[in-house]
Design goal:
The chain is an alpha+beta fold. The chain has two domains: 167 residues, Jelly Rolls (Sandwich); 110 residues, Arc Repressor Mutant, subunit A (Orthogonal Bundle).
């Protein structure tokens, strides 16, 4: 029997987007991912947000775009357990940036925003305030009026003050401009995470001594390189646990861990549960297919 996640984006073939509004969201869905983009506005509570390999605090006005196939989840803080959590989620096609209309001068900023090589994009509270009422109204509209408002919101976000926009997971200087060296390192990790990687290799890749490459990566991304590599491997492992029937041991080795005990420990530290429990929880929340 094959399984599909309940949290599959319910976009029909003729849908531009779907928008949902929860006046009081319980934030009890586990770490998961979608094939499509997700724009998420969270109001009134604080807590922890996981996007890709980055776990960080979120505030009462949190506005984030999560890229396709990126693991993510939200957990409200204990002190906000009894506070109403209002959430708007807009999901739209992973193929949207490739549509020809977004190559026009008027809409190109939207495509450029969505094509950033990062797990997600976080917007400032000022930006969240500017689009808040529009996002709250969007789920209640239909037809062309809804399409116009959706594009208006995306355009507002794409034109936001870049000093107040941050790519989640890769750099923290508020700029959309990526370092060529950082991109080379990220691509190298994506292609080689299943094997042993050394700082000497990273240094040679970007033309720096190993120690300098390590400091450079930390300065530009806010990640220790080894933490980034470990987080990348764990995220890949989590996806494989969901998508394949491989054993936990097989997955650990395919994701670059040579010791199953170390893999279990790091997975639990980052995901909050063991690999086996993670698989069981997802199988308990799926719908049989066929």
């Amino acid at each position: 029997m094959k399984y599909i996640l309940k949290e599959i984006t319910p976009l029909g073939g003729n849908d531009l987007f779907i928008a949902n509004h929860w006046p009081d969201n319980q934030m009890d869905f586990p770490l998961h991912f979608h094939e499509d983009y997700e724009l998420n506005l969270t109001l009134h509570v604080r807590g922890k947000r996981t996007v890709g390999n980055l776990v960080e605090d979120f505030t009462e006005k949190d506005l984030v775009i999560t890229n396709p196939n990126v693991l993510h989840c939200y957990k409200r803080g204990e002190s906000y357990a009894n506070v109403r959590c209002e959430v708007v989620v807009v999901q739209f096609s992973k193929n949207l940036p490739s549509w020809g209309i977004f190559d026009t001068d008027q809409l190109r900023p939207i495509r450029e925003m969505l094509c950033q090589p990062a797990p997600g994009i976080r917007f400032s509270e000022d930006t969240a305030d500017r689009v808040r009422d529009r996002l709250l109204r969007l789920p209640h509209l239909e037809g062309f009026e809804a399409v116009l408002l959706f594009l208006d919101i995306l355009h507002e976000l794409a034109c936001a003050d870049r000093t107040k926009v941050e790519l989640i997971g890769l750099q923290g200087d508020g700029s959309f401009a990526h370092s060529r060296r950082i991109n080379k390192i990220v691509q190298f990790v994506e292609q080689n995470y299943s094997r042993k990687i050394s700082l000497d290799e990273i240094g040679r890749l970007v033309g720096m001594p190993a120690s300098s490459a390590s400091r450079f990566f930390k300065k530009r991304t806010r990640h220790n390189f080894w933490d980034y590599l470990s987080g990348f491997r764990i995220n890949r492992a989590a996806q494989m646990i969901i998508e394949t029937e491989h054993t936990i041991s097989e997955i650990s080795y395919e994701c670059g861990f040579n010791n199953i005990s170390n893999f279990n420990r790091v997975f639990r530290e980052r995901i909050g549960t063991t690999p086996s429990d993670y698989r069981r929880k997802f199988k308990a929340s799926v719908i049989p297919k066929g």
